[in-house]
Request: fold
Amino acid sequence: MMKKCLVALLLLALCASFFACGGEHTHTAVEAWSHSDMYHWHACTKKSCTVVLNQVPHTWNDGEVTKEPSPTADGIRTYTCTICGHQGTEAIPYEADAS
Ligand SMILES: [Zn+2]
Ligand SMILES: [Zn+2]
Reply:
């Protein structure tokens, strides 16, 4: 009988903490950006909170040729997000010089 009570109490505590996590709180954005290939965003300072704040697509700069294309391999242009610093690449196809 006593054991049952304890289990019930434990469950109640679990429920309470669950609702505390999922419940309302004022989301506070961390300073560092999180990013995927497409977007950057701020996570909430509350670790258990999975909300995504300020999610926007990257703002790419003009890009920089980091590898010149050659007849045997594509070149690489690297873009850097001016907001979060995330980098993405794009292949540069080789174009035979017409002249
Ligand atoms: Zn939050
Ligand atoms: Zn970005």
About this structure: Residues 2-22 form the longest helix (21 residues). The first strand starts at residue 29 and ends at 35. Residues 25-57 form one domain. Helices lie at 2-22.
